[in-house]
Amino acid sequence: MPNQLPLEDGPYSLHAIGIGAHGLTFMDATTLIVDQKCVSVFIQTDKGMYKPGQTVLMRFIAYKPTLLPYSGTVEVSITDPNDNLIAKWKDVRLDSGVAFRDLPLSIEPPLGMWAISVSGKCLEGKQTFRVDKYVLPKFEVTVKPPSLLVSSDTSVEVTVTAKYTYGQPVKGTLELTFYLITRYYSYYGKPPKILRMSNIKIDGTKAFMLDSSKIRSLREEYYMVKTNLPSSGQLAINASVTEELTGTTLSGQGLTSFYSHSIKMEFHESTSKTFKPGLSFVARVLVTTQDNKPVEGNNVTVTASTHIESTPFVVQVVGGIAVLIYDVPTGATWLSLNAKCEDPRTGNIVTANSHPSISKSPSNSFIQLSTSTSSTQIGTSLNYGVKSNFEFSKLYYQVMARGSLIVHGFRQLNSSATNTSLEVCVTHAMAPSAQIVAYVITTDGEVVADSLSVSVAIGFENSVNVSFDVTEKKPGDDVTVTVKAAPDSFVAVAAVHYSVALLADTKDITQAHVVNELQSYDSSTPDWNNSPMRGFLQKKNILYGGRGHRVVKMHIAYLIKQASRY
Question: Are 384 and 238 within one domain?
Answer without folding.
Answer: no
